[in-house]
Amino acid sequence: xxxxxxxxxxxxxxxYEDIREIIDKDLxxxxxxxxxxxxxxxxxxxxxxxxxxxxxxTLNLSMLRRFFELELDENGxxxxxxxxxxxxxxxxxxxxxxxxxxxxxxxxxxxxxxxxPDYEMAYASILDEIAKEYRRHSFVLKTRNLTDAEKKxxxxxxxxxxxxxxxxxxxxxxxxxxxxxxxKNAIVLIDEYDVPLENAYFERFYEEMTAFIRSLFESVLKxxxxxxxAVITGCLRISRESIFTGLNNLEIYSILSEDFDDSxxxxxxxxxxxxxxxxxxxxxxxxxxxxxxxxxxxxxxxxPWSIVNYIKTAVKNKExxxxxxxxxxxxxxxxxxxxxxxxxxxxxxxxDLISGKVLKKPIHEDVTYGDIxxxxxNLWNFLFFTGYLKKTEEHWEDDCVYVGxxxxxxxxxxxxRNTVLGWFEKKVRSLDMSELxxxxxxxxxxxxxxxLSEQLLETISFYDYSENYYHGFLCGLLKTSSCYRVYSNxxxxxxxxxxxxxxxxxKNGSAVIMELKVADSFRKMEECCRNALDQICxxxxxxxxxxxxxxxxxxxxxxxxRKECMVMLAED
Length: 572
Description:
Structural class: alpha/beta
Largest sheet: 5 strands, parallel
Shape: elongated
Strand content: 15-25%
Strand order of the largest sheet: 4-5-6-3-7
Helix content: 40-55%
Number of helices: 22
């Protein structure tokens, strides 16, 4: 993005993750620098911040790095970053905070790229990131405060020629080297620490990756005399037994914590300000409906990734409709797992969520990916902490935190809907449909209704049992046929039949007309079936089929009530 302004407005920094680049290009930025003040006030040794993906974790870590780091180039000359914060809120907080600016060596490691399909590749990706950070600090090799053996070890890690044990302790050793060079302990920043663990779980090498990450973290975070403090970000709090073994100085700030509750994501006031900056005030209601809904601590929070993407789109076209931008940032594996592994109880709960209802579930923050399918509660926990559900209420019960869970907004609702659709299509492809089509050809209403009722019990509704839902459900099943062509709501007679099936051959060919109804009670299903058959007759839906040459035409009135189906065949 060249230039600073478009029509007098700052450009939207979609995809920018370094605060220095944003300030240098004078791009739009929501000031989160008061997080620095709160971090210094807390004085924690190791702080873990868990937030959903794309809620500003990487940008905030870049902010911490640029503020605290006494950054040097490859020749050991200082790089001045003080200008970044001159117009930001931290600069007016007083000397007790600004005195920490550009005073420390900083190790900054991101693990967000470790998403490879096997352990060897994912492990190599992490080693690349470690080597990159070593190269960034290669000026320490010029100091006399390191022995020749220590410099040799440094070069081996930097050049990817070290032993495995040296990589397991690479961050601790780097903190030691920096401490020897600067005469000060190092700040350690680790971004998206759980990405390699999530990937390893779904790719089935979780234990190997967990063992390596545990060794890497333990050495630098536990009883490390060269550590000033550390900040770690991730999506989930992985249990101490899994990653942070024996790390008693760890402070966790999750989406349940009131501390730092407005440090990640956009608050309501920040969103209003952003929309006003770009002349989009009238879009506030729609933006709120689509992207609001999160509750971090006691603060109402919007998804920042979606906000900046929507504003960028709406600046060009004010009529642009909101889109599910966040759904494109991850594979949504957790929602897919929820849908695919759901039993009948969970399927009903998913339907309740999609219809806007609230579920009450126990929430615990110590989780591992290996436990995701150990219980239903674990899966709900994953969905909550990864941003697919929001908190509506919170209370203690039986020594456990219970939280009201709901779908946050329209954007996330669309993810559930698309995941359900994808799952249903996959399921349909594996079904044996012979019973259904045999029933249709033989006029066996009982066989048809039994088959459809059984499938309804196995699927998930996201239309609150409207006719659209049943129409899509039935079309999805019928379109698997190799004998019939399926036509939906086509012109015929005086109106549009819901579904028409036709064999390709006219001579000795057959056709089927299906009219669908939805009853508001079980006892009205038979009446609705008869009404459907009357409609086929009155509207003369079969006329066009007869003109085309079809003589064998079956007419079905089909009624649905929740998970029940009734079918009637018209008598000629």
